[in-house]
Design goal:
mainly alpha; hpI Integrase, Chain A; 3 strands; three-stranded antiparallel β-sheet; globular
């Protein structure tokens, strides 16, 4: 039934291949555990105590609560899938609750750091240098995810409307507006590529040095290279630029719902994490200006 569940995730729930593989790994790990510890071989024999024992074993192995919660969510989805199809009389995960986790605020760059990154870094005057600069500009100017950047095609750029057609999580498309400067930068990059690549056509907007589609670790290294020059932040991932986009938008007065749509969030709760910094600024202004503060 695991195979059917994984197909359900990909074809009906529209989960990515990466997420599907993570679920498969979690399920295999769970069933290997209960087989070894309790000689359980079928889903119908699983009860609450088996799930509790697995969670305890994960914590004893010092797995962080966030990762444990992801595994719990995987099991809940799987047994709910079986229950909905009449393959289980009772769902054994109904009494399992997620672990409490410490809420971490997203890391982001200060505006002065972004100005340094965009305007004062010396990018090489080459295909690689221009690609790196465009990748940084795209991540900050649009707030798109790493996977969305990698899969961005030349045909997704509307030069007349100033928008990007982005394929987000679960294959949901959205239009993201970008500024005129970025559109001109994209157009110039495409023209330069066609001139230097002897007329070679390409599907994806940004490519590796070997002219192949970019992959996650390539973008991670690219971003870390440049963020390392302008910030002391420990976290220097592409997602930091997405966090920075959202934080700066809210700081400049953008509505929360608008930022939610730009980021491609399905829930407003996912966007509200970015209001922390804006609220701190409001509190500071209040303390400085209010006569009774």
């Amino acid at each position: 039934m695991v195979d059917k569940f994984l197909k359900f995730l990909v074809y009906e729930k529209r989960f990515s291949r990466h997420t599907s593989l993570a679920y498969q790994k979690d399920l295999n790990q769970f069933f290997s555990f209960i087989k070894a510890e309790f000689q359980i071989h079928t889903e119908q024999s699983v009860v609450h105590i088996h799930l509790r024992a697995w969670v305890v074993s994960l914590l004893e192995a010092q797995l962080n609560p966030i990762s444990v919660n992801r595994k719990i969510a995987c099991l809940k989805s799987y047994f709910k899938f079986l229950n909905a199809r009449g393959l289980l009389v009772k769902n054994p995960t109904s009494r399992i609750r997620p672990l409490k986790t410490e809420k971490k605020l997203p890391s982001f760059l200060r505006l002065s750091e972004m100005i340094q990154l965009l305007d004062h870094i010396d990018y090489e005057n080459s295909f690689s240098g221009r690609r790196d600069q465009l990748a940084i500009e795209l991540l900050y100017a649009s707030g798109i995810r790493l996977s969305e950047l990698i899969n961005l095609k030349e045909s997704d750029v509307n030069h007349y409307d100033g928008t990007l057609k982005v394929l987000g999580k679960r294959n949901k498309e959205r239009l993201v507006p970008v500024n005129e400067f970025l559109i001109k930068m994209i157009k110039s990059f495409i023209i330069d590529y066609k001139q230097t690549a002897a007329g070679e056509s390409k599907t994806y907007l940004l490519l590796t040095d070997k002219k192949k589609q970019m992959y996650p670790m390539f973008v991670y290294r690219l971003v870390q290279k440049y963020l390392g020059q302008i910030t002391t932040l420990k976290k220097r991932s592409p997602h930091v630029l997405r966090h920075t986009f959202a934080t700066h938008m809210l700081d400049k007065g953008a509505e929360l719902n608008a930022v939610k749509d730009l980021l491609g969030h399905t829930s407003l709760a996912a966007t509200q994490v970015y209001t922390h910094n804006s609220m701190e600024k409001l509190k500071k202004t209040f303390d400085q200006a209010h006569p009774k503060a």
